Each structure stands twice: as structure tokens, then as C-alpha cells.
Amino acid sequence: MTDETGRTLGRRHLLAGVAGAGLVGAGLVGTGVADLVGSDGATRLPVEVTTLDAPGSTAGTRRVPVPGTPTVIDCFATWCGPCIEQMDALGTVHDRYTDRVAFVSVTNERLGGGLTREDLRSWWRNNDGAWTLGHDPEGDLLAALGANGLPYLAVADATGSVVWTHGGVASVETLDAEIAAVL
């Protein structure tokens, strides 16, 4: 099996993709944008995610959205072809807004069974990631955003309110307009 660039995908990537698809689906059942506030009245955002040491990212944790800063949130998976396509547009708008907006890309893929932190870092380098790389294996961020597929994007204003969400690949023009609206 090959990906959209013609690279051969190994058994490990295929299994990670199948497992990841199940995780995304299982984590999203019953969620929606209205689910940003739980039945107990507690806001589900921000979510704290683990961050990895990778280009533009340091190991530790990060609250998403980033408090006090407009934030672009990208939910992705390494097995997702459209997620690779989305990285180009994200890189372009990141270069335009890096001094005024936080960018965070988060995967909920589980480590183990052939997928390692180094695999995530390698994917990040290969796709020119240059901002915070997060890992949320429980899918809390996806659920809080009401994501129903990948890639899934959100823009939050400086107060942490999510003002725009989008399932699928978004263009540079769309991202530019949504980011400009929160500045």
C-alpha cells in the first residue's frame, strides 16, 4: 500500500491507521460543538495536552487553547492523508501570524503497537511542522471540540472561546480570514 506521495506504507503505519480510525470514531460518539460545556456546567476547554520535543515544540504540557492568546488548533493523525495536505496551509499562516497567534497541532494516536514518540517527531519534521506538537491519547481535545473527523481545525480568540471550527482541509485564504477575525 502507498500513500498519496507514492511512499510505501509499512504494516505498522497501516495498523496505526486502522487503530487510530477506531479511536477517533470511539472518542467522538455523542459529541458536538454544544458539548464544550458539560452537563455539570463545567467548561471542557481548555484541555491540557502533553507536548513533544520537535521542531517548534518543547516537551512538557500545554493548555489548549493557549490562555490569553488567539489559538489555531489542528487535530491530526499521522495516518491521515488530508492531514498532510493541511500542514502546507498551516505552515503558510503560521509564518504570517507566529508573533500574534499560538498554533497547536494535536494527535490522539496511542503510542505502542508500533507507533513511538520518535515516529510522531519524524512525521512532524517530514511535514515541516514548526509549532507546538501535542499528544492527547484520550481524545479529550477532539471530544471537547466536537470533532467528527480529521483533519479538524478550530480557532479560539484570546478569551479561549472557540469562534470557528472546520472539518476537512481548509485553504490558506480561509485560515487567514478566520485568524484575522480574532486579532
Q: Average pLDDT across residues? A: 84
Rounded Rg:
15 Å
The structural domain count equals 1
Structural class: alpha/beta
Order of helices and strands: HEEEHEHEHEEH
Using the 3D structure, state the CATH architecture: 3-Layer(aba) Sandwich
The major β-sheet equals: 7 strands, mixed
Uncertain spans: 1-35
Distance N to C terminus: 43 Å
Within CATH, the superfamily carries the name: Glutaredoxin
Number of strands: 7
Instruction: Enter the CATH topology name.
Output: Glutaredoxin
The gross shape turns out to be globular
Count the helices. How many?
Answer: 5
Task: Provide an overview of this structure.
By secondary structure, the chain is of the alpha/beta class. It has a single domain (11-182), classed as 3-Layer(aba) Sandwich (Glutaredoxin), CATH 3.40.30.10. It is 34% helix and 20% strand. The protein contains 5 helices and 7 strands. Strands 2-1-5-4-3-6-7 form a 7-stranded mixed sheet. Strand 1 (47-51) and strand 2 form a beta hairpin. Helix 2 crosses helix 5 (172-182). The longest helix is centred in the N-terminal third of the chain and has 18 residues, at 11-28. It is globular and about 40 Å long. The relative contact order is 0.22. Residues 1-35 have low confidence and may be disordered.
